[in-house]
From TrEMBL:
This is UTRO protein. Keywords: Coiled coil. It comes from the Eukaryota. It holds the Pfam family Spectrin. The keyword Coiled coil applies. The keyword rRNA processing does not apply. Residues 3-64 form a coiled coil. Gene3D superfamilies: 1.20.58.60. It comes from Mystacornis crossleyi. InterPro entries: Spectrin/alpha-actinin (IPR018159), Spectrin_repeat (IPR002017).
Amino acid sequence: EKAVNLKKDLAEMQEWMTQAEEEYLEKDFEYKSPEELENAVEEMKRAKEDVLQKEVRVKILKDNIKMLATKVPSSGQDLETELNVVLENYQLLCNRIRGKCHTLEEVWSCWIELLQYLDLETAWLNNLEERVQMTGNLPDKLDAVNDALESLESVLRHPADNRTQIRELGQTLIDGGILDDIISEKLEAFNARYEELSHLAVSRQITLEQQLQTMRETDHMLQVLQESLGDLDRQLTSYLTDRIDAFQMPQEAQ
């Protein structure tokens, strides 16, 4: 009777493993939304816990069959053969579920990381847009133009590492068919805004550089002219002081 019960337990255990494999490993999952992906991750975590909890039952079965084999070798030998098949299938099931759970957790981590990088770069784009707008109505002063140019250039020196991460993470998920529509839409919108703003910023940078160069040249010309007028003023003042007649002066002084 004990051998019959153990055989029944082995059959039930094998049936449970077959059902678990069909439910957790053979279903075709499509992750078209973050909610679907997150639910799949949580489901696989529960599946892993469920399978690992069966380890106690498997051990009890194994101990009981070993004990029976020592007492009733004829009955125990057949059960040990069945037990070995169950143990092998159980270990395989555990490994496959652990693997799938790990894969889904990695995929979810990639998605979260992608969102974080997109948030960082979006904040940078907002800052860049603000700096570009600030250069629109500048006072016609050299210091103001120079400060605006330096401010814009400091933002443009932003490293490209984050954009590289966005491209690689997005492509990895898209290649796996995971959230591909959502990610493609997000990347397309981000890249379009990045291209538009970066081109506008560089164009504005060139304009400010030209404006600054023109203002510096004008300032230099005014300074030279002012110095020349100062020299002429001093020279004319000396002529007036010495009461020199205009016709005795050089042509330019007249």
